[in-house]
């Protein structure tokens, strides 16, 4: 399959769980402990994937300086964006309780877009540099998107939004994420290893900051006993996929 199509497919697959989470939240009430377990598991998967699939490979291919500077820049960018969103109602966009303040659901959706774009660019880059789909990264992003779709949809539903509006929002975010994956492939497929390392680790730094600021705290807030266990299982799952795929 053509690399550009593979990049778009990877972005679409990873973003589709936003719609799945939205549909589930619209139809049924998911127990917060279940969402917390998904959050913790997804956090572990993301940490493992960014360590073994992103940062280590960026350092091997592009060198230490682009890797370190990109990773720090990504973390700073995400923390700044997250601070602005938190002031507008998206502080708990992955909260397992799925409750939203007035207008918070829409802000949460914007947060999902900011979370998703760098992740999707990485998916496109992984196809460009690896020649195929990276299952650990796709699985990590897909799992982390599920509770975001759940919690944001619950918030928008509580705000009185209609189904057409809610699913148009998530469909738009899924389309934007797919476009970001295509962009990541098209723009950086022929870039030098230092540029690829920098861009990859910008996204990786943002992902780690997101995991630290939102996923783990929100999961731990609901289930203080099993959060560490589920995160460990997620880490080991992604590591096993990395080793089997290597």
How would a crystallographer describe the biggest sheet? none
Global geometry:
globular
Mean of all residue-level pLDDT scores: 83
Distance from first to last alpha carbon? 20 Å
How many extended strands? 0
Unreliable residue runs: 98-104
Proportion of residues in extended strands: under 5%
Radius of gyration: 17 Å
- State the helical fraction: over 70%
Look at the helices and sheets and give the structural class: mainly alpha
| SSE string, helices as H and strands as E | HHHHHHHH
The number of helical segments is 8
From the structure above, extract its key features:
globular; single chain; 246 residues; mainly alpha
Word description of this protein:
This protein is an all-alpha fold. 83% of the residues lie in helices and 0% in strands. It has helices at residues 3-27, 32-62, 64-86, 104-130, 135-158, 163-188, 193-222, 227-245. Helix 2 runs antiparallel to helix 7 (193-222) and helix 3 packs antiparallel against helix 4 (104-130). The protein starts with a helix and ends with a helix.
Describe the secondary-structure layout:
Blueprint: H1 3-27, H2 32-62, H3 64-86, H4 104-130, H5 135-158, H6 163-188, H7 193-222, H8 227-245
Helix pairs in contact: 1-4, 1-5, 1-6, 2-3, 2-5, 2-7, 2-8, 3-4, 3-7, 4-5, 4-6, 4-7, 5-8
Write a short abstract of this structure.
The protein is an all-alpha fold and 246 residues long.
């Amino acid at each position: 399959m053509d690399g550009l199509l593979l990049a778009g497919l990877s972005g679409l697959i990873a973003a589709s769980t936003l719609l799945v989470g939205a549909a589930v939240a619209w139809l049924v009430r998911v127990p917060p402990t279940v969402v917390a377990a998904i959050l913790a598991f997804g956090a572990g998967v993301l940490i493992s994937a960014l360590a073994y699939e992103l940062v280590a490979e960026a350092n091997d291919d592009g060198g230490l300086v682009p890797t370190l500077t990109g990773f720090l820049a990504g973390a700073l960018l995400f923390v700044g964006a997250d601070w602005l969103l938190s002031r507008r109602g998206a502080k708990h966009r992955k909260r397992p309780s799925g409750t939203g303040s007035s207008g918070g659901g829409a802000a949460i959706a914007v947060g999902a877009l900011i979370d998703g774009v760098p992740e999707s660019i990485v998916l496109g880059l992984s196809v460009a540099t690896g020649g195929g789909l990276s299952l650990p990264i796709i699985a990590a992003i897909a799992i982390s998107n599920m509770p975001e779709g759940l919690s944001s949809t619950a918030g928008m539903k509580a705000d009185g939004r209609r189904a057409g509006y809610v699913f148009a929002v998530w469909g738009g975010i899924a389309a934007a994420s797919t476009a970001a994956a295509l962009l990541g492939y098209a723009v950086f497929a022929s870039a030098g290893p230092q540029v690829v390392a920098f861009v990859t680790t910008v996204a990786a730094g943002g992902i780690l900051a997101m995991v630290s600021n939102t996923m783990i705290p929100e999961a731990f807030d609901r289930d203080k006993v099993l959060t560490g266990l589920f995160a460990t299982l997620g880490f080991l799952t992604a590591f096993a996929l990395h080793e089997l795929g290597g």
